[in-house]
Amino acid sequence: MIADAWVRFLVAGVLWIAIIAVLEAVRRQRINPLSWWIVHGPVLAWGAIALFPWWIALQSGFWLVPATRDTVPLDLPATYGFTLSALIGLGVGVAPFAFVGTTANRVPVRVRTKVVPWKAVGAIVLLFVVYLRSLPSLSSVWRLSRTAQEVYVHSSSSFLSLSIIALAGIAIGYLARQQGLGVVGIVLYLALLVAAVGSAHRYLILILILSFLTLRHPFQRVRAQLAQGLIFLVVGAAAVWLIGFGGIGVLSVLRSGAPVSNPSEYTQQTLSSFDVMGSAEYLFEAGGQPGQLKGASYLAIPSELVPHVLLGSRATPPAVAYEDNQLGPATGASAPLWIEGVLNLGPFGALFSMCVVAGLWCFLLRRATSSRRRLGRTVTAIGPVWILFAYQALSRILLVAVIELFASVILGLLLWNWMQVEDDPLGGSSSAMSGGESTDGMQSAVLWGTSIA
User: Fold this and answer.
1) How far is CA 186 from CA 170, 231, 390, in A?
2) Calpha distance 37→358 (Å, rounded)
3) Cα 175–178–183 angle (5° rounding)?
4) 24-37: string of b/e by CB count within 10 Å (b at 16+)?
5) pLDDT tens sequence across 309-323
6) Across the chain, what does the average pLDDT equal?
7) Nearest 5°: phi and psi at 166?
8) The pTM is what?
9) How many CB atoms lie under 10 A from the CB of residue 396?
10) Cα-based distances in Å from 88 to 28, 48, 94, 359
11) Gyration radius from the chain CA atoms
């Protein structure tokens, strides 16, 4: 059994690497290649969702489903074909855009910006107030133990996700600035990290931390400040603790309030936090059939996108409701996105749904990065951070949650652009900077413009 599981795992790994290699070869054939994080983002996210927990399970010798405490076969007999079909669908959806490349040679105009204080205070305070009012109670700021049923019957739940993720979008936009970080900005970023501990999104705090490490690493060609360097060390240590020393498990226990008798449970909780494949396998081992929802999840999307406060409480979406029946309501939406395609469209649902998702991913990001508008420049500056959001999106069985996720991020970026005004262009005759600063800024602009591809 274990030998067969290892063979299947290696086949999946080889196929994953092969698709990445083919897409990269196609991408590099273009004079104006599409950015690597656009081409490889969905496929890399698939690897983190499918291969990482599978490898952990093979090392352990068993695959434990956190919600039920039952085990599933290591060779994933019920979902192995769907998982490979999803990978192929992602590759097929990306390939045409990798072949076409970008529309023009991108030379972004980099300018210094400054934040308008009253706009920043107004936007941040408004979103935070919406977030607080959307919680079941103020005590939930520190311990938010929500079930899937509570998510969808609470009349303010739509704004709960939108507000906290929009705040994260503002923070990531701030981190992507090609300028030093201010003390107030650092304090607000750390405050958002604290709020994220009690948020409804398991990976939000990890996304914020990894975004800082990605956008503000020591090799960044932005004149670093001592405070920024210290924050980098603190954030880096937090990432090591969260992933390597069971920190995610500790946060999960604190949020749920459940007692822990053995410290090793923190490590198990951390590993379980990255596992949505076991839940998917259990759904079909328990009797799930491809196509049994007959498109009900997708037909419900228009009504689900309307804020709950307008239509009031309503039923849990079909895919999540089915998962609740099999695994219990505490699972939320813990199964890969392509499983929703299988339940709604049949055996080829994983291939078709992931092809569409990957195509939309490339189309929208290609359009944004080719634009000279401020939002397009911000989307480009964030770069590889979009892969973190792709991982979050593909690890949930609910397409409407994916739409809300990216809509909330874009809202945050729009607010971030709104609260800024352009200063003097770097190197311009009207710049108030010294000649040394202008030269350094122009060099940074050239390096940034050539690195985004």
Assistant:
1) 13, 8, 26
2) 12
3) 55
4) eebbeeeeebbbbb
5) 554 555 666 766 766
6) 76
7) -65, -40
8) 0.81
9) 23
10) 20, 15, 10, 13
11) 22
